[in-house]
Specification:
heterodimer; A: 180 residues; mainly alpha; 3 helices; 90% helix; B: 269 residues; two-stranded antiparallel ribbon; globular
């Protein structure tokens, strides 16, 4: 409203003075169009060939640089992750290896211990049986000697009593009969 | 009165329409074709020089981490390219230098035209707004529409005429729609031109009228002189508004140009 009324006032004023707005004075059109073409053309030329390519170039370069940096960062991250995975892998490998070595050693030791135990037991058993055998032998020997002594004593007693030596086999039989 | 002494010469000079007067500075042109270098030409030249100086300093030593001027230049670049890409898509980017020049040229003409005239300068050196003349805005609008028509037919052949017959409209409706679309297409350059011209014209007119009230009231003397403060404050407010309008109209002109170019690229939207 304000604009309209102002234009109305201005128009009225103009009507009083010169009759027409400067904007509608066609004598000036050719000059305005000519110089507009010149200056707009010069500016378009300067912008499109000098300034905009320069400014666009640096913006583009920055964008590429940023993209490159992002790519590089992603690459480094991937590498770091790879290294971490390799580290974990080797750690797990080492642990498994250590465990297997321990188990192997334990098994070997168990085996050796068992072998030594068996050997020792065998030796002991052998000695035991040898000792038993010798004891038995000594017992038998002793028993034989006792038998012999008994026979001889019996013969000597019988000789002293009746002055006759009984044969050994009869004495032996008599002693066996007494013993049983 | 001292006030009279200072104000009289200006009062005598300043009609609200004098600021739109075209005043020749150097004569130029052939017989019967007056191409004189005028105050309008001068301010177009100043606008182009300021725009180019700005771009020169913005691009003088381009760096990956921009300095202050470069950052400002890049901001302008991104602003215009985002606007164009947003409206036309990537295939419209070939018009980027044109839209950028158009926007910056109109912006500079509008903004620099708001610069207050230095008192005492002869009329041909008064601040002038080339975009307050309809022939200039009409020429720029027709340039845009010419590009639209040429691109439209070059890219789509006769398919460009689909612009006037939107798809999916039933046949009987087309008899109504097509004339409306044709009229709206023809009115585009006019509305572009008149919108910019009228805004610049009216803004400067109001500024000058209010300034005239200030001078008239101040010249009355006595208590009434004090009332001059009101149109003065009004003028300050309108001046701030005009700065916004100067930017906004350049933006509107540029974005509407983008939309019309989008029509040329994709007529069957």
């Amino acid at each position: 409203m304000l604009i309209l009324s102002t234009i109305a006032v201005a128009a009225a004023e103009t009507a009083e003075s010169s009759g027409t707005l400067p904007q509608f004075n066609m004598d000036t059109y050719a000059s305005q169009l000519f110089w507009l073409a010149v200056f707009f053309g010069v500016m378009f030329w300067a912008m499109s060939t000098i300034f905009l390519p320069k400014l666009g170039g640096i913006i583009e370069e920055r964008r590429n640089r940023l993209a490159d940096d992002y790519d590089k960062a992603a690459e480094f991250k991937a590498q770091a992750e790879e290294a971490e995975a390799a580290y974990h892998q080797s750690l797990a490998d080492a642990k498994a290896k250590a465990a297997s070595i321990a188990a192997e050693t334990r098994a070997q030791l168990d085996e050796e211990i068992a072998a030594m135990q068996a050997e020792t037991e065998e030796k002991l058993n052998a000695r035991l049986s040898a000792a038993e055998a010798s004891i038995n032998e000594m017992q038998a020997e002793a028993a034989a000697k006792v038998q012999e002594a008994a026979v001889e004593t019996t013969q000597a007693l019988v000789e002293a009593l009746i002055n006759e030596t009984p044969p050994a086999d009869k004495v032996t039989a008599a002693i066996a009969a007494v013993n049983s | 009165m001292t006030a009279d002494f200072i104000l009289k010469p200006i009062v005598a000079f300043a009609g609200p329409l004098d600021q739109f007067e075209i005043v020749p500075i150097f004569p130029f042109g052939a017989e019967g074709l007056d191409l004189a270098f005028t105050n309008s030409s001068l301010w177009m030249m100043i606008s182009v020089i300021v725009a180019c100086l700005f771009m020169f300093y913005a691009t003088r030593s381009p760096q990956l981490v921009p300095g202050r001027m470069q950052a400002a230049g890049e901001m302008l670049y991104q602003f215009v390219s985002d606007m164009l890409r947003g409206v036309t898509g990537n295939d419209g980017m070939k018009f980027f230098p044109y839209i950028f020049t158009l926007f910056l040229f109109i912006l500079m003409c509008n903004m620099l035209g708001l610069w207050p005239t230095i008192p005492g300068l002869p009329h041909e050196l008064h601040t002038f707004t080339p975009t307050s003349h309809i022939i200039v805005t009409l020429a720029l609008a027709l340039l845009t529409i010419s590009i639209v028509i040429i691109t439209g037919f070059a890219q789509n052949g006769l398919g460009f005429l689909k612009l006037f017959a939107p798809s999916g409209v039933p046949l009987p409706m087309l008899f109504l729609i097509v004339p409306i679309e044709i009229i709206s297409f023809l009115s585009r350059p006019l509305s572009l031109a008149i919108r910019l011209f009228a805004n610049m014209f009216a803004g400067h007119l109001i500024l000058k009228l209010f300034a005239g009230f200030v001078v008239s009231l101040a010249g009355v003397g006595g208590l009434i002189t004090g009332l001059a403060i009101f149109p003065l404050l009004g003028n300050v407010a309108i001046f701030l508004l005009e700065i916004l309008v100067a930017f906004l109209q350049a933006y509107i002109f540029a974005i509407l140009s983008c939309m019309y170019l989008a029509d040329a690229l994709h007529p069957d939207h």
